[in-house]
From TrEMBL:
Keyword Cell inner membrane: no
Subcellular location as annotated: Cell membrane
PANTHER family: SLR0882 PROTEIN-RELATED (PTHR33529), YJGP_YJGQ FAMILY PERMEASE (PTHR33529:SF6)
Single GO BP term: lipopolysaccharide transport
Protein name: Lipopolysaccharide export system permease protein LptF
InterPro entries for the chain: LptG/LptF_permease
Keyword set includes Transmembrane: yes
Membrane topology note: Multi-pass membrane protein
PROSITE patterns linked: PROKAR_LIPOPROTEIN
Cellular component annotations (GO), alphabetically ordered: ATP-binding cassette (ABC) transporter complex
Transmembrane segments: 12-29, 59-77, 103-121, 288-305, 340-362
Superkingdom: Bacteria
Key words, A-Z: Cell membrane, Membrane, Transmembrane, Transmembrane helix
Length: 404
């Protein structure tokens, strides 16, 4: 690799790497508020929140990489154009394809990373995120004793006072719906009230138990209070209903690419439809293939030869990538529904994008005409000029109109 390509590779790697980190941080900020809301009932919120954030990273990395590759390439080429370095290199006989090689190398590296992230880390991370969220919501035994909060679990409603340093909470108020007389023989409908000065959670045989000290209780059946009882110590089981999260593999998005490939004929698991299985597999592979095509689109989008500096490439690139992502998702949905072959809805779009990339790059590299987005920039500039001219003419007419 020559000195020019090493220079381009360094600038491109810095731009793309910085955009990947920036995009991941921005995308995570949106989910952090929800994570904090979930872990407020956790007995170990710091660990659970960290685990959920780590498991989300592969998902957001899959979104950030194509955006960063496209925008990073456009920004790098645009800088070379505005500084006239691109013009000097072309004048020295260096072809545009030769200067695109560093971006191709980066795209190959990112395609390999994407296949691993999309095929393994993302489905495992998705499952672990859901399992952690489920565990926090279902097995957080202290959720029933959150300080100053009413919490309903089944037919019981709990309220707890201040939590002490030993983990005990008090005072405790418990409201429970019942369907029995005060003597327990049945026939009446009402509720039972239990209060205690101290309450503490313990786990016995994987079942959370609420231990109460200095407690009192009574029934209210058909509006009549009876059955008052005062005890020094008592215990209530079933504070929360503990259930295990579903096994991984009930959702195609939680299956690795190897598992999807093994199930492409639908003979490994009957839970996931064969078309859904194959459409998901083709979508993951297409995301890696798309990265190999993006440099041949991004480089022409970043060209301006220093004569008409413009940032239209960034705007058009974002619109193009978002539209392409939605088109791939639509193709996947058609394939999963069985309306078309699962591969056709995905690879048909990739083939069309490849043709578009070949045409636009060939015209930019070998025709040496105006950059592809020059016409777009001129059109935007024309509209902007017309708007400004209209505003100025209106202001002049107002100034020329005599005041009565």
């Amino acid at each position: 690799m020559g000195r020019l390509n090493r220079y381009i590779l360094k600038n491109a790697a810095l731009s793309i790497g910085g955009l990947v980190i920036f995009a991941c941080c921005v995308l995570l900020l949106e989910r952090l508020l929800r994570i904090f809301e979930i872990v407020t009932v956790s007995s170990d919120p710091g660990v659970d929140a960290s685990r959920m954030v780590v498991n989300l990273l592969p998902y957001y990395l899959g979104i950030a990489v194509p955006i960063a590759l496209l925008l990073g390439t456009i920004i790098t080429v645009d800088k070379l154009s505005k500084s006239s370095e691109l013009t000097a290199a072309l004048g020295a006989g260096v072809s545009l394809f030769h200067m695109t090689k560093p971006f191709i190398l980066i795209s190959i590296f990112l395609a390999g990373i994407t296949m691993f992230v999309e095929g393994y880390l993302q489905p495992i991370g998705r499952y672990q995120y859901r399992a952690t969220e489920y565990k926090v919501r279902q097995t957080s035994a202290t959720a029933a004793l959150r300080e100053g909060t009413f919490t309903t679990v089944g037919s019981r409603t709990f309220f707890a006072g201040t939590e002490g340093s030993d983990g005990a909470t008090g005072p405790i108020f418990i409201h429970e719906e019942v369907d029995q007389n005060s003597d327990g023989s049945g026939g009446g409908t009402g509720y039972r009230i239990t209060t205690a000065n101290i309450g503490k959670i313990s786990v016995i045989d994987n079942s959370p138990v609420l231990n109460l000290a200095e407690s009192r209780g009574f029934y209210v059946i058909d509006g009549t209070m009876s059955g008052q009882l005062s005890v020094q110590e008592t215990a209530i089981t079933g504070v929360v209903e503990v259930k295990k999260y579903q096994a991984r593999g009930d959702d195609e998005r939680e299956m690795t690419s190897g598992e999807l490939f093994a199930n492409r004929k639908g003979n490994v698991t009957q839970v996931i439809d064969k078309n859904t299985n194959n459409a998901t597999l083709h979508l993951r592979l297409s995301k890696a293939a798309l990265l190999l095509i993006l440099p041949f689109i991004a480089v022409p989008f970043g060209l301006n030869y220093g004569r008409n500096p413009s940032s239209a490439g960034i705007f058009v690139g974002i619109v193009f990538l978002v539209s392409l992502q939605k088109a791939l998702e639509f193709g996947q949905s058609l394939g999963a529904a069985g309306k078309i072959p699962p591969w056709l809805g995905i690879w048909g779009i990739i083939f069309a994008v490849s043709i578009f990339a070949a045409i636009i790059f060939w015209k930019s590299a070998y025709k040496m005409g105006q950059p592809p987005l020059t016409a777009f920039s001129q059109w935007v500039g024309y509209i902007k000029g017309e708007i400004l001219s209209g505003i100025q003419s209106i202001l002049r007419r107002k100034q020329a109109t005599p005041h009565v």
